[in-house]
Specification:
Blueprint lengths: L32 E5 L6 H7 L15 H8 L6 E5 L4 H8 L4 E6 L2 H16 L2 H8 L7 H8 L5 H9 L1 H6 L6 H17 L1 H9 L3 H8 L4 H11 L2 H8 L14 H13 L8 H8 L14 H10 L4 E6 L2 H6 L6 E5 L9 H14 E12 L7 H4 L2 E3 L1 H10 L5 E8 L1
Parallel strand pairs: 1-4, 2-3, 2-5, 3-4, 5-6
Antiparallel strand pairs: 6-8, 7-8
Helix pairs in contact: 3-16, 4-7, 5-6, 9-15, 12-14
């Protein structure tokens, strides 16, 4: 493995710094943050999904359980990690482990703006101030806090948040499309249908207490109502995220699979301890102990320290575009989120061909799929040693409740 990317290579350079003219308050800018917009069209259909969409943030919270990535990838000093930005929480939990560098890519530029904001807040604020600024705790000073954080952002991120102060004022961690859908559609419907049941569920502190709720009369009807909320047509109308299931095989009924996954998780895990269950049933974090690691006191301190030494590359482009920027045998780990849900079979195969090309021997892969993870093409599968026990364990225990996994090592 080389120590540096070739400087003659067009694209990211590990020693790159923002130009002085682009660095307001240059002394305040994170010294190890590199931004790049990729103009290639490697995976065409993934880019087509974004064309014509307005400027917005799709996900603002950490809706996936980083504990799975941390266990599967075992990140640490000297490693190079490739991941999808999304809400940024998984990226921050990986950075906190202290690898040499992390590449975070997203086709939606606002997701990278959000990650910049979370990084800048971690660097500039105390733990309590960060929770208040993001919206976990109440605050009337968020715009004043933003004025302290703003000099650490790149001009593009500054421009976005300057144009959308309401996101900051309301608490940005709850302002993504998914988070607003949960808070404004799903939570009110659940409260209308069974308000007492939901309150008791989120108050339960043991699995045994939850089991008693599931044995009550009416729970079968309750499951049927939840299943109707998860029908494709309803979710298409209200969530604007039909991309999640556009490549889900038609023989897999979306609504029954969602109910099976969610209630299956709740039969063996306490709902209040899952950060995603907090959002799903309450629209906000009602139990701070369930927050992702980087929003816990110890994890926050680790992240603040790691940001001083881990090189963080933020790439705006497709995942395939990002991988094409890297040389062969470069990465030690891949956290691929649920990107496969967005891709047709050809693009999916192309993505994993790039994983094989850019991964070192023994590189770990943690790939998620919403409700279903398709199999790898045969010519790719022969390079990947699968870890089925971890795949089954993560599908059962992941706090996001709805993912299937592909976990493996490159050979």
């Amino acid at each position: 493995m080389t120590d540096r990317l070739p400087t003659a290579r067009e694209g990211i350079r590990p020693d790159a710094r923002p130009a002085e003219s682009d660095r307001p308050g240059a002394a305040e800018v994170a010294p190890l943050l590199v931004r790049e917009t990729i103009e290639r069209d490697v995976i065409v259909n993934e880019r087509a999904l974004w064309r014509g969409r307005r400027e917005h943030i799709s996900y603002t919270a950490c809706n996936e359980d980083s504990a799975c990535e941390l266990q599967a990838l075992a990140p640490g000093p000297g490693q190079r990690i490739f991941c999808v930005t999304a809400g940024g929480g998984r990226v921050l939990d990986l950075v906190a482990s202290g690898p040499e560098e992390v590449w975070a890519v997203d086709l939606n530029p606002t997701q990278n703006h959000l990650l910049e904001l979370k990084v800048a807040g971690t660097q500039a604020l105390t733990f309590d101030e960060q929770l208040a600024f993001l919206g976990v705790r109440p605050s009337r000073q968020r715009l004043a806090t933003y004025a302290r954080v703003r000099p650490r952002l790149t001009p593009a991120a500054q421009g976005f948040f300057d144009r959308h102060p309401r996101l900051l004022r309301a608490g940005v961690i709850y302002q993504g499309d998914l988070e607003r859908f949960l808070a404004r559609v799903i939570v009110p419907v659940l409260r209308l249908l069974r308000p007492v049941w939901v309150r008791r569920l989120m108050a339960a502190r043991t699995v045994a207490e939850q089991e008693r709720l599931f044995r009550e009369r009416g729970t079968r009807i309750w499951r049927a109502l939840v299943a109707n909320l998860a029908r494709r047509r309803f979710l298409d109308w209200f969530s604007r995220e039909s991309r999640f299931w556009c490549y889900l095989p038609p023989e897999i009924p979306l609504h029954t699979r969602v109910v099976s996954k969610v209630f299956g998780y709740l039969e063996s895990h306490v709902a209040r301890d899952s950060h995603f269950a907090n959002l799903l049933f309450c629209g906000r974090y009602v139990n701070e102990a369930s927050l992702p690691r980087h929003l816990q006191p110890e994890g926050f301190a680790e992240l603040k320290a790691a940001l001083g030494r881990t090189r963080l590359h933020l790439l705006t482009g497709t995942v395939g575009d990002g991988l094409h920027q890297a040389p062969e045998h470069f990465f030690d780990a891949f956290a691929l989120s649920d990107i496969g849900s967005y891709l047709d079979d050809v693009s999916f195969a192309s993505l994993f061909e790039q994983v094989v090309r850019t991964g070192r021997s023994g590189a770990r892969i943690c790939s998620r799929g919403i409700l279903y993870h398709r199999e790898l093409p045969a010519d790719v599968a022969r390079h990947v040693h699968r870890l089925p026990e971890l795949e089954r364990a993560f599908a059962r225990d992941d706090a996001s409740m709805v993912h299937e996994f592909l976990i493996g090592e490159l050979q």
